[in-house]
Amino acid sequence: MKKHVAQRLLRxxxxxxxxxLQVRRQVARxxxxxxxxxxxxxxTLSYVKRNHCAGQEIGAYAFxxxxxxxxxxxxxxxxxRHLFDDLDDLSRAERAQWARYIQRHQHDxxxxxxxxxxxxxxxxxxxxxxxxxxxxxxxxxxxxxxVAQKPFRVVEMFKRPGEMTRWLESRAWGVSxxxxxxxxxxxxxMLQYARDFQNEPWAQDALEEMYGWLDKRQDPSTGxxxxxxxxPYHLSQGVQTGYHIWLLYFYDGRFIRYRxxxxxxxxxxxxxxxxxxxxMNSSACEDIDTLDPLARLYHQLxxxxxxIRRAFEKALPWVLVNQNEDGGWVFRKxxxxxYGHPLTSVxxxxxxxxxxxxxxxxxxxxxxxxxxPAHPSFPWRFxxxxxxxFFHPSRRKGPRA
Length: 401
Prior knowledge:
The protein is mostly helical. Helices cover 52% and strands 0% of the residues. The relative contact order is 0.14.
């Protein structure tokens, strides 16, 4: 039964996506790239702005059409609008008001929480929930030229030497390295933010201990973390795990071991439609988890650069077909998004703010490699803050070995 369903899904994907892909691939090869991006930018921003909660303050946005105001949506709106260089129209007072809206959600332990989606999972998970939302809130605040007001008490346990090592060794790496990597990213990003934005120099010692532990457990044959990578599924999981961890290294300019093997691993996850998942309808997460490290390593290495360019040219039309006519984007074609809570979940084919941000960010990284030389100045705007939306591929802050 499962095989039959999978075959039927593949046929549908091939019939209703492959022809549009061919058309978009032809467009992407012309000098009209900038026009395509201009239309994508305009329609995406239009969707985001329609999700502003009518009659509410400037920072109040809904996760999807007709939904309530959520902090997640406010963060995604900030990140998308900043990425597309669309926040400059706001006055300084309006930016400050939006920042105050986000700041109101920070608790005394430093974490950002939304009472509308308060549930046990919000405190248990790291792929969604309070720690995950905190990662997005600090990026959004940076886009608004603001800083989180309260320190992150939740990471102060790492002040004690050896505590980071004990914590890393207690994680369930053998059960799900991908989930553990979300934990590592959330705590590691808070430490980076505490060091760089909140004047907590002890955080660097904790990060050094973290990097030392991770360096020793990175697989030399793949550049990944985990226990096995011997099937398309396990390789994809390994790349997704690596994405969350590599971002910490990239932000700190920390030397990453086995970079050539990482390139090999990432390129090996591309499917026939251009996405980077085992399933043909690869998700927003699966796609960016490969596009991001490849884009950064493309600028660091002289290794398989033509292969990376070809992979990105193939990926570009695939990413574009995940945009709906309303200007929003889907997480995965032909499947609903079940994301932590009913208020952050949507039905099949329905646009929502999370994939709208993540797929827009995928486009931004695609065009760090695949940009048409005739239009090199499309105004992607990154933010120099730990998390996901920074881009400084040549930065070197940390030790080289």
